[in-house]
Amino acid sequence: MSTPVRTALVSTAGHCKVACGFCFRADRAHGFLDTATYTRTLSRLKEAGVEGVCLTGGEPTHHPELRQLVRLALQFGMAVSMVTSARTVAEVTVLSRVAHLLTNVTVSADSQGAMLMGRTTRTAASAIDTLRAISTDTKILHVTCWGLKDGECREMADLVAEAEVEVQFSPVVLDERSLRREGKSVRDYLVQQRLDADVLGRYFELSDRYRAYLGELRDLQLPTTGAERWLCRSATAYVSADGHIRRCPYGRASVSVHAPRAAIRRFLVEPARDSVTPDCAAICRSSAASDDASASCTALA
Asked: 48 or 227, which is more confident?
């Protein structure tokens, strides 16, 4: 059975200066999403029943026509959200100029262990500073987690409660190459995920969706003998910066936005042909309901 596509994750740029060591981006290239290609994409997505787009990167605040990208989607009657790592004055200034037009803004951050592994500096505190500086209906802190400690989680819970923002968590997702580089086995990796969830649970009310997501990652990493991976069930399509639509960023099947209307619509309504992998599960949680709010976690009082 096909899952209707209702939203689209749009890559506004093929490059990102953050360059996380654990980055799971499926496509990397130079250059920005062309406005004409983007406009054609919106038209085709709208015809297929897509109701909203999420602008992501690379880093969307680096796109020279970001305000135009937002306004074009609104003109097509689509809700617009954004995922960003904006921290610098220039990035936050660009973000603040469009934030009031967005339904929600998610600012990415990393735990201390994830920053060490990924060689990043995206702290939760600096992400909340960005969220404080903008005006939008819904503000979300998204933290990629690895090696969590009680003190770190306690401080994070205090920050979230004071700033009154939503918070979402994802574990670091490592492929086989990254596991070898870190000198870890799959089982070591899964044990760390469970330990991190236990620490988070002391300070945040983790949603059922998050716990189900961890279970899915475990099943994907350690499949039972003879088990087949399930086909993609995501209601979110992916648009690369070069104008190709996929049902998943890691999917092999794609269609160009310059293809005939009928071909694009058929691609979006037919059952997905790509199997779920740990990499793509890190981006979209396939068993989740369509309500994104169910992924949020609440800081315990």
From this structure: 48
